[in-house]
Structure formats: structure tokens, C-alpha cells
Amino acid sequence: MNSYDQLGYKAVGSRDQSRVNRAPDGSIIRNRTEGHVIECDGMHAVISASMRKNETASEDYWSVGMLISISVGDGVRTIGMLHKIESDNDVWDTEGDNHMKIHVELVGEITNDAAGKPRFNGGISAYPHLGAIAHRIRSADLSAVFENSDASAVKIGTLSQNSDIPALIAIDAMISRHFAVVGTTGVGKSSTVTLLMRKIIEARPDMRILILDPHNEFSSAFPDKSIVVSDSNLDLPFWAFRLEEFVEVLFRGNDHIPAEVDILRDMIPRAKQLFKGDERTTIRRAQKDGTGITADTPLPYRMSDLVRLIDDALGKLGNGEQRSHLKSLLARINALTSDPNFRFMFSKTTIEDNLDGVLSTIFRVPANGKPITVFQLNGIPSEVVNAVVSVLCRLAFDLAVWSNSKIKTLVLCEEAHRYIPANKADGFAPTRQAIARIAKEGRKYGVSLGVVTQRPGELDETILSQCNTFVAMRLGNDIDQSIVRKAISGASRSYLNFLPSLANREAIMFGQGVNTPMRMRFVNIPQHELPANHLMEEAGSRDDNVEIPIDIGTVLHKIRFPGGGSASDSMTDIAPLGGTYVDEQPASIPQQPTSDRFDTVRQSLFSETTPLRRPSPSSGASSSPIRQKESSPAAQSSEEPQRSANSIISRFRKP
């Protein structure tokens, strides 16, 4: 009587290949003793197998991508991944026996523990001998290969080889050592990211996630777990930018003029001193020692003070070259503050030290059940997006450092090749430095990096090399494939041969987050949690037989004033960060003509008497309604550490 394993294969030693064997239920019984080792080195083995005339039981037995087991004695089985199969004589004889060569890549070995349970080890202690029997891996051994004993391991899919075996990933290892998701357009990258983010916040409720979303894809993916920050409600004050970042905005991504940058380097600290106190005393101190304040110190100042200092210097000069630089700089500042596209920097009618409220909202401190911030970048001028990303990544790292690792943040960079391109001459150096700092040092302080890109070949290899868990989806470009190939260990590189032919929602996963490299398929996520779900709904509602009415005037207004829905919209109507937009609709604000309100904002920016508004002692860290609501004891989780945003900010202002 024959004995069968869990997959329905005849036990080792059965050699009947003359007919199709069937189990009592009628299913085909495969013969597991199909080949013998004829060649072996430290990484590969070649197996000789045969198929006899009219045999059908094993026609799909040897297939590329499957794992096989090679018996080496004493209960030890070497595991190999089949990556190539060929006929012995380059022809196929339909009238006689056929002989094949099976090429496998050795990936590890399995032994039985004291209780007889199979255990997988990524190393190999005993290599197969010539003639060793090779067969398809048992179900129990296959489970042992992909078992993940990490306490933070969660299921994200199933194996492509066997859908009954879960694909597990260790969340702690993935985020602490950074990760990358790569794949061409349309293969399910965004859905994969959505799934991973939900698994992360379930396993690590102490983590905050900042998603840099350039295509407005993720606003619909986390309706219950996120807030959305866009150009219409963003308040990122200009004085929070470092000099390099502010100059990048001022010059709109074009080449900088060193003389004008030098003027700003001298004038901005003096403007910050003027904002703090008496004009004469403050300027004199700044001229002597600066009292520790530089152009990079995140302290508020008024544009009116900066302009007045530049104008005073202009009045003391003749018609020399320095005068020309001063006049050019004044024109740049005026154009920048007059541009509605930059209202996220200059939207405040008064200059106030509100950085604590801004950071508390962006980095979800406290989270109030919504630990994810979807930061939409599509409404921010493309030439200054890099500067904004630089500010956010820098602040994420500083908050973690100066909170003693209590504020743990995962920064997810969608379309990462935009911010950290392979060519160091491209992009924005401070952005590259801020992201590289997270990649190299973030693990020490609880800041993690997630990199998502469809073109890994255009991504900075140094930063990509810091990602120790990879999710590689379909990639057709040879350069992109070669970049990923460099990241995987030599014993498993044959897995990447499948990259051009992977199905949608299928991936090769390898690195610290998984026990061993695997080819797997992600689980489906609900329709209402899909990224860009609202866009899909809009596309699905289109009727091709009916012409959709379009008001070109409305479209033109949005081009002129991004984020404005009608002629009555204005910068003063924008609910700033820390305002009521997070959990409820912003309060109604009386309307006035756009040009009048815009002039009001500009006058406040350049007003010499604009006061520094500070919250009253009874109102907590910020005077905005949402901050009061978020700071209430009932809203705070008992597991969340109590901390003051003001104290943290003061620490990284004056280390």
C-alpha cells in the first residue's frame, strides 16, 4: 500500500512511473522521488530527472520557481529553488523517454528538532552528494521555510507556490531597519503600501506615519486613521525654513546668486532679534555675538523687518554691484509673498510662534486615534516641493532626537526618486541630507524610512542600500532590476529572474523583515480602503454617451489660485494646521473680494507693529480649538507619553 504526504505525493522510495497514480478521492498522486543530484557547488546543484513515454503524472512536477528538497541523510534536507529546467539533448521525444536537467539555487536546510518538528536554517551544514535524491518539498517543510517566529510578525498574503501557507513579515524589523517598495506603474504598489501601513499601525500603536503623497492617492485609503494636509489647509510658516530651504523657495528651484544668499544670511538673524525685543539693543547684540541665533534657528520674524533691514542697507550704498543685489533680493521677496501659490508659508494675518501647534498636528502628538498624516504635495509648486520635503524630514528627525525617542515617526516617501535622485547634481541637497540622515541614523532614535518608487534605477543607491527589507513587484527595466539585484544575497538572486513576469499584487520579498526570500501574493483589501478610491469612483461614474458640462472659468480660477474653489475664496479662508479642519468643518468666515483680502494678508506680513501672539496660560500649548480638544485628558490614550511640544521645540532651537 502506498503512503502519501500532505500534498498528495507518493512517499520516497516509490518508483512506479508507468501510469497515473490516483488517491481514493480521484486526485493525481505525484511521485516525490523524481531526480538525483549529478552536480553541486557552494551555491547551486544540478539534478538529473526523466519522464517516461506517455507519462502524465509529473508533467507539471518540475516548474521554475518551486522549492525542492534534497535528502542528504540523518534527517537533513537541503532546500533549493528551481530556477532553470532544460532537456538533456535539446529535443523532446514524444515517442520515447526524455531526460532533463534541473538547475536549483541552494537556499538553506531543514532539520528536525527533538520533537520531530522541521526547522529551517538559512545556512548549509551538509551539501548534497552525487546521487542524492531530490523531490518536491513536503508541505510541513515548506511551512517551516517561511515560518516567522518574530513576535511582531503579521500575515500580509500567501505564498505563490502554496496559497495555504501565509506570507509573514516582522513589522519591528521592517520599520526599524527601513524598507523599500519598488515596482512599475499599475502593479499594485499603492495598494501594497496601504496594506503595510495598516498592518504597522495595528502592530505598533506608538508609531506615527507621515505619508508624502505627490499624487493625492492616499487621502481615501485611511478614512478612519488619518488626517489630510493639503495646500488649502497647510500652515508651514516661512520662518521655520532653514536658510538653504528658504533660498530654494525664494529662487524657485533655480540657481542661487551667492551675493543675495549672503545678504539673507546676515539679515535674517537680525530680523529675528528685532522681533524679540528692543530694536537698538537687539541689533547691537546681534552684531557682536548674535546671541546664538542664526539664519537656521526656527524663530519667528517679520518680513517687514527683513525688508526694512535690506532697504536701510540699500539707502547707504551708491550704484555699485551690492546695490543691484539688494534691489534684486527685494524684488524676489515681494514676488514670493504676493504669489497665492505660497500662501501655505505666508497665510497668517499675524506672525505668531505657532510652531508647536503645526508640529503637533503634522506629527500627530497626540494621535487621537488618527496616527497617519497624508501630506498632499500636488498643490504645492513643483519647484519648491523639495524644500518642503526637506523641512518635514528634518523636523521628523529633530522631534525624535529631542523627545528622547518618544515621538516615533515613519516617513513614507512616495515617488522617492523625485527627492533623492541617483544623480547628486539633481534634486535639492538639503532634502537628500535630511532623508539620508533618517536612513543612516534614524534607527537610533525611532525614526523610520519607507521608500516607494517605480524607478529604483533613478534612486540614490546609498539611501536605497540602507533599506533592509524589500518588496519588489514587477519591474521590466534592466537597470531597475540590476539595482534590486544588488540588494539581495547571492544565495537567492535567482528569485529576481521572476521580476519581469510577476502578476499584479505579487512580489518578491527579502531582507530583515522576512525569514527567507519568498514569492508571494498580497491579500485583497476592501474597496473602500483602496488608494485613490475617490478618483476611481469618479472615473466609474462617467457616461461616455453624455458630454460632461465644464465651466472653463472655474478651471482657470483653480489654475490661478490653486486650492480656491470660487471667486470668493481667499487665503484668509484657509483653516490653518491646528485648526478645526481635522475633526470638523472650519467655522464660517465673512467673505470679501479676493484682492482685498490678499492685500490684507500682505499688509500684515509687512506691518512693523504686528504683535507676537502667545497662548494664554489657561489655554495650554496652543490657542486653536483643535489643540484644546486634542489636549484634553479624555482624548489622550493612557499608553501615550505626556510631553510638551513647547519644551521639545525649545530643545532643538537651543541644544
From TrEMBL:
* Bias kind Low complexity: ranges: 615-639
Signal sequence annotation: none
Domain (Helicase HerA central): give its ranges. 154-395
Pfam families, from UniProt? DUF87
In this chain, composition skew of type Polar residues spans: 588-610
Which parts of this chain are annotated as the region Disordered? 564-655
Q: PANTHER family annotated for this entry?
A: HELICASE MJ1565-RELATED (PTHR42957)
Q: What is this protein called?
A: ATPase
Q: Which organism is it from?
A: Ahrensia marina
